[in-house]
Input
Amino acid sequence: MEVAYKPASLEEALNIVEERNAIPLAGGTDLMVHRRSWSGLPPRFEHPVVFIGHLDALIGIELEDGILSIGAANTLTSILEHREIPPLLRASIRQIAGPAIRNRATIGGNICNASPAADTLPAFYVLGAEAVLVSTAGTRVVPIEKFIEGPGKTCLRRGELLSRIRVPADRHDIWFFRKVGTRAAYSCSKLSLAAVAHTEKGLAAEVRLALGSIAPTVIRSREAEAFMRAKTAGEIDTHLPRILEYYDSLIDPIDDQRSSAAYRRDASLRLVRYFIRNILLPHIEGTM
Amino acid sequence: MTIEFTLNGKKVAIHTNPLRRLLDVLRDDFHLTGVKEGCGEGECGACSVLVDGMLSNSCIVPVGTLQGTDVLTIEGFRGTERYRVLEEAFAEAGSVQCGFCTPGFIMAAEALLRTNPEPGEDEIREAISGNLCRCTGYHMIVEGITRASRRGAALWK
Output
C-alpha cells in the first residue's frame, strides 16, 4: 500500500479520501510536527496521506456577489497578499507564526485543525464565514460555528474535504483584533479577541465579538450582541457589567503550559471591556 | 514515489518515500549539510531553504510536495554576488558567532531582500522572526542585513 498519494485532480483526491480514509496534507506545517518521528526518519501517519496543496480547485481567491471565496489550500502568505481580504482577517493571519510557516501553512489547515487557539477562527466567526465541504456525493455549506464542534473536532465526514471558506466582503465601521501571547512571533495565543461593529446616528447598529483560546471552541455571545444592538454609548456603558457577565458565563478556559485558566478569564474580560469602552463607545459617540 | 525538482539550479529526480522531510533528503541524499536541523518542528529556522523563492522550513516539508519546484539551499546561493555581499556584511557586523543558525539567517535575509531591497529595521526583524539565534541577541544580525541592503541594494532590485 502507498504511504502517500498525489492526485491530479480534486475528484481523484476525493476518491482517495473516501476509499482509503486518507489524511489530507496541504502545507503540512502542523501534521509534520505532530506525526514527527526520530531525526532522519519519515514521520509516522496512521493512515495513508493524500497531498492536496497543489490542487488548482483548492487554490485561488474570488470575489463574487459580495462574497469572498478563499480556496482552502491557499497559503497564509498568498491571502495576506490579496487586496480584497478583510482587514480583520489580515490582522489575525499576520500574527501567525513567522514568514516561513505562513509561506506553507494553509487557511484550510488552520480551520480544520479546529484548535481552540486557532488564530483565524475568531475572525471567521465574527465575519460570518461559511465552510464549503465537498465529497464524491456533492457539496454542502456549513456556517463556521457549526463546522467546528470541539477541540480538534469538525463536522467533516469520512470522504469530505474543506474546499473553500466563504467570507462576506462587508466593510465594517470598526474592526479590532488582539492576540495575547508570550512573544511577538510564533507564540500560540493565550487568548484572542476579534470584533467588528457598525455604528450609526449615535447607536450601536451591530456588534460582533468572538474570543479564542478561552473555551473548547471560539465563543460568541448572541445575548450580549443582541443587548448592545440599537443602544447608545451611555446605555452600553451603564450596562457594561451585565454585558461582561454574558461573556463570563461562556468563558471556560483551561490551565496549560501557555497560561492559566484564571489569567485567561480575567484578561479576556478585560479585553472585552477595553474594546467596548475604548474603541466601540468613542466611535458611537463620534457618529452622533 | 518519484519526485523531480530543481535543486540549486540543477534538475534532480529521486525515488523515495514522499513523506520524508526535505531536510533529510537534502542532508542524507544530496549531502547538503549547510541545511541544519535545530528544533525539527518549524520554529527555529536553522533548516531554512527557498522553495520557489519562498522561505520554507525544510524540516516540515514532505519531499512529495515538491514536484516541479525550485529549491535553493545555502550551497546553491553561495556562488552569487548577493551571497558575497551578505557574507561580508555579516562578518563585519559580527552577525555570526557559533554559526549554526547562520545559513538559515542568510536564506531569510535573501528571501527578504528579493522582495524588499531596502527594508527598515522592523521589516528585517519581522523577516527573521522565524529564525532563532542563541548567541548574538539578534542586534548584530539586523545590523548585518542592514549593511548588506545598503551596500548591495542594486543587486536585489
Observations:
- Helices of chain B lie at 22-29, 74-77, 81-93, 102-115, 121-127, 139-156.
- The two ends of chain B are 39 Å apart (CA to CA).
- Residues 139-156 of chain B form the longest helix (18 residues).
